[in-house]
Amino acid sequence: MHERGELPADTDPDRLAMAILAAVQGGLVLTQVARSTEPLEIALDTVIDHVASVVERARASRAVRPRIRWAPTRGGPLNVALADQWRLLDLQAFDSRIDQLAHRRRTLPETATIAELNARRDQVRDLLVAAETEDSDIGREQVKAEADVDQVRQRAERDQKRLDAGQVSSPKELESLQHEIASLAKRQGDLEDTVLEIMERRESAQARIAELTAERDQIASDLASTTAALAAATTEIDAETATLTGERATLAGGLAGEMVTLYEKVRAGSDGVGAAALRRGRCEGCHMELSTTDLNRLRATPDDEVVRCEECRRILIRVADSGL
């Protein structure tokens, strides 16, 4: 509403929105406490009446304020042939298209895709380093566990050879040797189970490494293709921008210098739009309708006199369907 001029210029839209929100929330709280919708209805009626009064004040202000501002220079009004003023709209069209191309260049989807791919590439790199470190640690753990199994197996084999060779004659020593062989067999079984568990963990770690490596390679491929697509898109945009900039320079060079200077100044402070057509009594820059008084003043103004919209301060170009 503020951008469309439906609120007075001195109205702070943020404060107005905050007041409306506070009234609604307060009404909801009181509604819950009172178990009745009356507090909320009162709050809504109050804020609606307030907004209506603010809008009415803005309308009253517009009714008494002329919407046309002449564009004086030090020597008086700025006079430029109406045909050249029409060409200022062509200049504005060039600038609007160039601005659109610049925006398109800044917001190419490939740019966002490359940023996402780079972020994921860094993630995958860190995950891959962690997975490789884990695999290395598990590998060392596996080597140690397998060495423990070999040590127990060798000892059990030595004891079994002594038993088979009949080198033990004492019944007590024989019983002790048989018990040790049984204990070593159990120990070997437990260690072999540990080795199997370690091997399974290492297999999972290596599968994770393979998965991350494949993803890293795919990201590199996607980055290469997306970067190429971005380069092609920017080259196309830059080529069109260069062409339009050249044509724009030629057009601007044939217009009155004072008018172009004013146009550039206005455009810099008006979201890139320095000149707008007057169509059917409405400024196409701010979309505000001119009052009958303003239209009558325009009818009485020489065609070659440059005028500006008081609402948005853009240069106002009178065209065939201006409504004059």
Structural description of this entry:
The chain is of the alpha+beta class and 324 residues long. The protein has a five-stranded mixed beta sheet with strand order 1-6-7-4-5, sandwiched between helices. Mean pLDDT is 87; it is low at 63-68. The protein is built from seven helices and seven strands. The protein starts with 12 loop residues before the first helix and ends in a 6-residue tail after the last strand. It is elongated and about 135 Å long. Among the domains are: 1-64; 109-242, Helix Hairpins (Orthogonal Bundle), CATH 1.10.287. It is 72% helix and 6% strand. It has helices spanning 13-34, 38-64, 82-106, 109-164, 171-253, 257-268, 292-299; strands at 68-70, 72-73, 76-77, 275-279, 282-283, 307-309, 315-318.
Q: Quote the beta fraction.
A: 5-15%
Report the end-to-end length measured between terminal Cα atoms. 27 Å
* SS field, number of helical segments: 7
The chain-level structural class is alpha+beta
CATH class of the domain at 109-242: Mainly Alpha
Question: How confident is the prediction overall: mean pLDDT?
Answer: 87
- Largest sheet: spatial strand order: 1-6-7-4-5
CATH topology of the domain at 109-242: Helix Hairpins
Q: What's the structural blueprint in terms of helices and strands?
A:
Elements: H1 13-34, H2 38-64, E1 68-70, E2 72-73, E3 76-77, H3 82-106, H4 109-164, H5 171-253, H6 257-268, E4 275-279, E5 282-283, H7 292-299, E6 307-309, E7 315-318
Parallel strand pairs: 4-7
Antiparallel strand pairs: 1-6, 2-3, 4-5, 6-7
